[in-house]
Amino acid sequence: MKGQRIGYVRVSTFDQNVDRQLEGQSLDRIFTDKASGKDVNRPELDAMLAFAREGDTVVVHSMDRLARNLDDLRKLVQSLTKRGIQIEFLKESLAFSGEDSPMANLMLSVMGAFAEFERALIRERQREGISIARQRGAYRGRKRSLSDEMVGELHRRVAAGERKATIARDLGISRETLYQYLRAAV
């Protein structure tokens, strides 16, 4: 039974190119999440898992686009292949089906471990780079959400007893950000 070819794409920032990940692939349907890999709330991944049927093939750019870590990767691949769904990883040139050999399982583990290791190295280099930039005085963190005038308005409105949720909505910030500004003033 020949099923559908289903694409899954995850981009971690809104400026990353969605089209590049599955370029040149003939797909019947594509599910796209715009979320960090560590974000467990990925509605399009859940939708893709519910949509895929026996005989279908799920196509993903690379292992790190599908799972946050090796355990999640193994669980997802096993869940799909047990249901008779094949999964292809383009970057790694690997495909998995229900009849996987011990060699295929080894490749999944090794390649998944390398992807996890690579992400850890990137995070470590990023932390080191930020630390060096801070020492030089070049890194100041993320740009503040509110100007000094807006922070003053925030404090005046809180002092007047206005609801914090309303103030946050009016200023275009989350309630947590509002509370961070209030804590910083103490």
TrEMBL record:
<dbReference type="Pfam" id="PF00239">
    <property type="entry name" value="Resolvase"/>
</dbReference>
<protein>
    <submittedName>
        <fullName>Recombinase family protein</fullName>
    </submittedName>
</protein>
<keyword id="KW-0238">DNA-binding</keyword>
<dbReference type="InterPro" id="IPR009057">
    <property type="entry name" value="Homeodomain-like_sf"/>
</dbReference>
<dbReference type="InterPro" id="IPR036162">
    <property type="entry name" value="Resolvase-like_N_sf"/>
</dbReference>
<keyword id="KW-0614">Plasmid</keyword>
<dbReference type="InterPro" id="IPR006118">
    <property type="entry name" value="Recombinase_CS"/>
</dbReference>
<keyword id="KW-0229">DNA integration</keyword>
<dbReference type="GO" id="GO:0000150">
    <property type="term" value="F:DNA strand exchange activity"/>
</dbReference>
<dbReference type="Pfam" id="PF02796">
    <property type="entry name" value="HTH_7"/>
</dbReference>
<feature type="active site" description="O-(5'-phospho-DNA)-serine intermediate">
    <location>
        <position position="12"/>
    </location>
</feature>
<dbReference type="InterPro" id="IPR006120">
    <property type="entry name" value="Resolvase_HTH_dom"/>
</dbReference>
<keyword id="KW-0233">DNA recombination</keyword>
<dbReference type="InterPro" id="IPR006119">
    <property type="entry name" value="Resolv_N"/>
</dbReference>
<comment type="similarity">
    <text>Belongs to the site-specific recombinase resolvase family.</text>
</comment>
<dbReference type="InterPro" id="IPR050639">
    <property type="entry name" value="SSR_resolvase"/>
</dbReference>
<dbReference type="GO" id="GO:0015074">
    <property type="term" value="P:DNA integration"/>
</dbReference>
<dbReference type="GO" id="GO:0003677">
    <property type="term" value="F:DNA binding"/>
</dbReference>
<feature type="domain" description="Resolvase/invertase-type recombinase catalytic">
    <location>
        <begin position="4"/>
        <end position="137"/>
    </location>
</feature>
